[in-house]
Structures are given as structure tokens and as C-alpha cells.
Amino acid sequence: MKNEVNNVEKGSRAPDFTLPSDDGGTVTLSALRGKKVVLYFYPKDDTPGCTTQACDLRDAMPTFQDLDAVVLGVSPDSVASHRKFRDKFGLNYPLLADEDHRVAEAYGVWKEKNMYGRKSMGIERSTFLIDEDGQIQEAWRKVSPKGHADLLQEALQD
Fold this sequence. Notes:
Layout: E1 18-20, E2 26-28, E3 36-41, H1 48-66, E4 69-75, H2 79-89, E5 95-97, H3 102-106, E6 110-115, E7 118-123, E8 126-130, E9 136-141, H4 148-157
Parallel strand pairs: 3-4, 4-5
Antiparallel strand pairs: 1-2, 3-8, 6-7, 8-9
Helix pairs in contact: 1-4
């Protein structure tokens, strides 16, 4: 997967993965062929920006379902953390645990961050719209949590 890091852009093949889900099962991207997939990477469960984004996507789920799209949230948090986050906010789509950040690296969203002069590695909030054939239809990086669901709905309707 490592060599795909810089190639994940509009028109490229989405790197396949299997990750543990908040429901105790696993999700494999290639098993979702035939559906559009909204794959969003977020830094951390139950933080202000991530909660805003997660709840906006939750509220937009009826539209995503009408457009035959699956929403998947990915962060380096554990399955147990995802379960708490899901239950606290009534999230209605799978949250996937990428604890070793291998999938985030494959998508090029595991980045060095600089907060108050302190450098650390973490997720750059990003979303990928994957078409029914497993190709990246759109890629948004450095996403703003608020209003992102509206942007996704427009992209799905085009």
C-alpha cells in the first residue's frame, strides 16, 4: 500500500482495505463495489470538529441512502472508542478503526501536524468519493467539518 500514497486523487483506483468496525465486524472496501462510497478520515472521536462533521453526516444519511451511497468514517481510534462515539451521538454509519494508520497512509492523509510549535503525526481531515467501480470520483483534503455533508450531497447528485 505504501507506494500508492501520492497517487490517491481524482481518477485513480481507491486503495482497498479491510478494517474493524464499531459493530464488531469488519468492512472491506472492495466488497462495496456497485455502490458509491463516501470515505471520510477524521482525527479523533468526540472532539468538537469531528463531532460536528459526524453529526452533519448522520443527519444527511437519508439523502445518502436515497443516492445509494455508503458512508464510512475512519480514524486511528479503537473500536471501543468508536462505539462510545457512535452511541453518544446516535451515528448511523460504520466507524472504522485504523489504529496503525496504514489506511490513512495509503490515502495520503497521515500527515505531520504542528500545533503551538509542537509537531506530531495525525489525520488530515479528508474525504474521498469512490464510484461504483472503485475509482476516486472526488478527493477533498483539509476539509472543514461544518457544511461538508452538503458538499457531498451535491457531488453525489451530479
